[in-house]
Design brief:
Shape: globular
CATH class: Alpha Beta
Number of strands: 8
Number of helices: 8
Strand content: 5-15%
Strand order of the largest sheet: 3-2-1-4-5-6
Length: 251
């Protein structure tokens, strides 16, 4: 089994991926700065799996801190989740998103290259397709983003594509997925973001338990029977298992 570094590893999708990887027998090193997650997730992962991860609280853009992690562990592969992900915030604060999301990937790749670790799965997004011309969206559909968050994903994809083209020893998988939903069957981990949720289901859940007074529905001119928006969803555990198969594919 591999020793895998998971960046942003206490986040929603990442924490479920950690559970699946541990249950498959992998050893994990997790780094996160808790900008949109909670330290309690680490204990919950251990309760679910009966196994611990090696954890470092750090910003992936911190070159020296990340280099120390690689020096301390025989990392064999990386799953890269770390990054800001709120579409609305990216529109309001584009420089923050470009600086954070691109620097994180560049720093990570530099450190990986230094340590001859060249297996990487990148958490991208279907946001790179912008407003789709056809549905379902084929993988080879036109790429055109409509917000800075999406552009950071696409720019990171280009960085990794160029890196792999320059050095065929790199094995990179880019995962462009849609809206994850749900929680682990144990109920111990799920989507519980810091601050105001950016996705529908945690907002619904917070209204249901009384943390918020009501659910506001945005938009009334979509091409649907009642004019409200429609979304496709993928269960987060299925998505986590997809990451496991992707990391296997890089071997």
């Amino acid at each position: 089994m591999d020793k895998i570094l998971v960046t942003g590893g206490t986040g929603y999708i990442a924490s479920h991926t950690c559970v699946e990887l541990l249950q498959e027998g992998h050893e994990l090193v997790v780094v996160d700065n808790f900008s949109n997650s909670k330290a309690a997730v680490l204990d919950r992962i251990k309760r679910i799996t009966g196994r611990s991860v090696s954890f470092y609280q750090l910003d992936v853009r911190d070159h020296k801190a990340l280099d120390d992690v690689f020096n301390n562990h025989g990392i064999e592969a990386v799953i890269h989740f770390a990054g800001f992900k709120a579409v609305g915030e990216s529109v309001a604060r584009p420089l923050l998103y470009y600086r954070n999301n691109l620097d994180a990937t560049l720093t990570l790749c530099e450190v990986m290259q230094k340590h001859h670790v060249k297996r990487l799965v990148f958490s991208s997004s279907a946001t790179v397709y912008g407003i789709p011309e056809t549905v379902p969206i084929p993988e080879n559909a036109r790429l055109f983003c409509t917000n800075p968050y999406g552009w950071t994903k696409l720019m990171n994809e280009q960085i990794l594509t160029d890196l792999a083209a320059a050095d065929p020893a790199w094995s990179v998988v880019l995962l462009r997925y849609f809206n994850p939903i749900g929680a682990h069957p144990s109920g111990l981990i799920g989507e519980d973001p810091a601050g105001i949720p950016n996705n529908l289901m945690p907002y619904v859940a917070q209204v249901a338990v009384g943390r918020r007074p009501f659910l506001q529905v945005f938009g009334d001119d979509y091409p649907t029977p009642d004019g409200t928006g429609v979304r496709d969803y993928i269960h987060v555990v299925d998505l986590a298992r997809g990451h496991c198969r992707a990391i296997d594919y890089t071997a």
